[in-house]
Design brief:
two-stranded antiparallel ribbon, single chain, 59% helix, Multidrug-efflux Transporter Regulator, Chain: A, Domain 2, 97 residues
Length: 97
């Protein structure tokens, strides 16, 4: 039987695994969630599950921290980057018409 590969937005990694993947402390991941920088999936029991997209976002957070941004600045950069991606998608969709 062939198992399907989870979508990049599907939570599959426990917090300890996610923290290890990005070389961060578990507590940092909890802080980033409280500050709205990411939203991991939750099991019915409340366990956090991080997706490949979440891991990518954590790497981006790490880069921005290294550049000297505080968490409020990082939140704004991530928001603006998301807006740019949405606008680029919209432009591409309109060009295909």
């Amino acid at each position: 039987m062939i198992k399907s590969v989870p979508h990049s937005s599907q939570g599959v990694f426990a917090i300890s695994v996610a923290a290890e993947m990005v070389s961060m402390e578990i507590q940092n991941l909890r802080v980033y969630e409280r500050r709205g920088l990411l939203e991991p999936d939750r099991t019915s029991g409340g366990t956090r599950l991080y997706s490949a997209d979440d891991i990518e976002r954590l790497h981006r957070i790490r880069e921005l921290l290294a550049d000297g941004l505080n968490l409020a600045g990082i939140a704004e950069v991530l928001r603006l980057e998301g807006r740019v991606r949405a606008l680029e998608d919209e432009v591409a969709r309109l060009r295909r018409r």
